[in-house]
Amino acid sequence: MSRRWLGAVRGAIGFLTRLPAAHREGDWEAFRTTPTAFPIAGYVAGAIAALPLLAAAALSAPTVALGYLLAVYTVTGIHHLDGVADLGDALVVHGDAARRREVLKDTTTGVGAILAVSITVVGLALGGLGLAGLPVLAAVAIAIAAEVGTKLGMAAMACFGAASYEGMGRQFTSGAAPRSFVAPAIVALPAVALTWPHAAAAVALCGAIGGIALPWYWATRYVGGISGDIFGAANEIGRVAGVHAGVIAWTLS
Prior knowledge:
Number of domains: 1
Low-confidence stretches: none
Organism: Halosolutus amylolyticus
Helix content: over 70%
Shape: globular
Membrane topology: Multi-pass membrane protein
Family: Belongs to the CobS family.
Order of helices and strands: HHHHHHHHHHHH
Catalytic activity: alpha-ribazole + adenosylcob(III)inamide-GDP = adenosylcob(III)alamin + GMP + H(+); alpha-ribazole 5'-phosphate + adenosylcob(III)inamide-GDP = adenosylcob(III)alamin 5'-phosphate + GMP + H(+)
Transmembrane segments: 40-71, 109-131, 137-164, 176-193, 199-218
């Protein structure tokens, strides 16, 4: 059992981040059937990506925000942005569900893709600017909670979602069941207390899940189910939503 868990975490880190993880045979299978590995990887990625925020007291806010943006994509890579791009093109295309699924799988980059990726990256940069204006420990906590919330949302997609066709999405949805969501939720629970007694971390985590719900709902309604591109897009959109929700919660308190 412990070997399977270690393999699942290695698989999650290998798939969700660019961090070096010694891959072994069976890691992917362990990861796709162990949704709990999603939030565990979120803690790791979130903590490392938040390191530039520790310099907020010494550097200007725009510089810290840029550092956070670069750290996020250094840690997580940019391959999930491909899902944002494909979703952007599918959002603007005219046609039925089959046509939208075709666009999701198409490698051509259209104006919808450019706009969607631009909004996502700018949104994260502005969220980083908001974090840079908060107390250092609060900013780090919100960044971590948003990342954990994003990965918890992806676990929810795997446990409760339905894939529209064969591919990466079905790899996850076929490997998990609704009852499998209990363990990821428990693992993610400590993240809500990172700003205790302030609720900003809890709001960031919930905001990230809410952000993931948007592409999930759209895919379910308009293309018949989720896919690997939707998982990738949800990962990016959830992070942006979580960071902004956490900053707003702290600012309004």
